[in-house]
């Protein structure tokens, strides 16, 4: 059934290809240029995609600018209604979205079916917050009654990556709309399918034309122009750290406000007093789900030497049982990696591990000759300064480093350029408090895998990002504080 459903989705886009959506009108690129999106399962063509250029971004920014005043001034109740209709539209098409995402990105259905529904949840969550978006404070002084309020920034740009692209797009766009901003979305070139479905759902939900514009294309032209456009007031970007640097430079002339969610090399630190069975489950889940193509994946295992042999042996046995396969097979845990380019990068790290003198305990090779499948990989006896312990690999690839003391664990955990998330396993509360207090990460879970609580702040430190979203933090980014003083 999933295959026939996929066929129906693909049928729709094969004829016209994936077009841009500008000012409520579906259009090819103004230059007529296209690129192809292919499935990482077998490299087969999915369809052609409009290759947006500077003129397309200019048209989308103009549409977003024109639509802004009316959307800003739409009552909170009416904005909320549209966001809920979008959530309902996602729910109604959740399975279609999930299969499309699996085919376009290689992610396993078991995770994408949940990710599609999480997209709807994101819209419902921010729909509920619309009425409080403008809330401010009253700050009395002897001579003035000071009040603050928040106003939406204007048209904003959203640039998303190819990992769980549907869910991430909803997470960025829902709060922008709730705040009263209008949007130009530039999705990743490797995964354009569900961004198009999402924009169609928003259109059908009655979102006014121009409030949400979609321009496909590459980072170096469409993406760059969006970040340089004078009418675009802010850029919400999710992607690699070095792209974040480029966007910051590109946006400098127009003083762009930026929110960056970037790369990670997140540690899962397992002390010998932890509940080791639960730690094992969580360590496995956080790197071998979503193909390991996950910003918050725990890609470094820091394990105390007293339990390292046993823990690593159990982990190896579990990794060898992980099912790699067709992403639409409900039993599949790991599908193919997104694209040849990324596959080549991950495969290169198999050799890097050997050259560096680490031990490949599981995996370490590609799987089959068709598509971009790799075996889930577990590398032990790594040293903190090795490339496999420092660089974001972004695949089902876990690097284990042993430590003996808490101080050493902390030094290793903090010893990379990144600081997105961290996971600490210990039953010693004092140690957990001490350790988390000093761990350089934007988000830390103790005795837990990553469990997302939507009102909580999301984001990283160091090269992992700038700014936070989630809950009210999303409004802090998409809105401007305004102060008004009334003389008494
Ligand atoms: P990427 O940086 O290559 O691309 C992301 C997006 O930026 C794409 O849409 C791309 O077209 C665009 N882009 C590229 N160059 C640009 C430029 N010069 N100007 C404007 N836009 C440009 O990232 P990717 O490979 O698609 O995604 C994987 C990365 O994303 C990983 O590093 C991962 O850790 C990170 N990520 C972080 C989070 C987080 O919340 N911290 C979440 C998901 C992914």
From TrEMBL:
<dbReference type="InterPro" id="IPR011985">
    <property type="entry name" value="DH_HpaE"/>
</dbReference>
<dbReference type="InterPro" id="IPR015590">
    <property type="entry name" value="Aldehyde_DH_dom"/>
</dbReference>
<dbReference type="Pfam" id="PF00171">
    <property type="entry name" value="Aldedh"/>
</dbReference>
<dbReference type="InterPro" id="IPR016162">
    <property type="entry name" value="Ald_DH_N"/>
</dbReference>
<keyword id="KW-0520">NAD</keyword>
<dbReference type="InterPro" id="IPR016161">
    <property type="entry name" value="Ald_DH/histidinol_DH"/>
</dbReference>
<dbReference type="InterPro" id="IPR029510">
    <property type="entry name" value="Ald_DH_CS_GLU"/>
</dbReference>
<comment type="similarity">
    <text>Belongs to the aldehyde dehydrogenase family.</text>
</comment>
<protein>
    <submittedName>
        <fullName>5-carboxymethyl-2-hydroxymuconate semialdehyde dehydrogenase</fullName>
    </submittedName>
</protein>
<feature type="domain" description="Aldehyde dehydrogenase">
    <location>
        <begin position="30"/>
        <end position="484"/>
    </location>
</feature>
<keyword id="KW-0560">Oxidoreductase</keyword>
<dbReference type="InterPro" id="IPR016163">
    <property type="entry name" value="Ald_DH_C"/>
</dbReference>
<feature type="active site">
    <location>
        <position position="261"/>
    </location>
</feature>
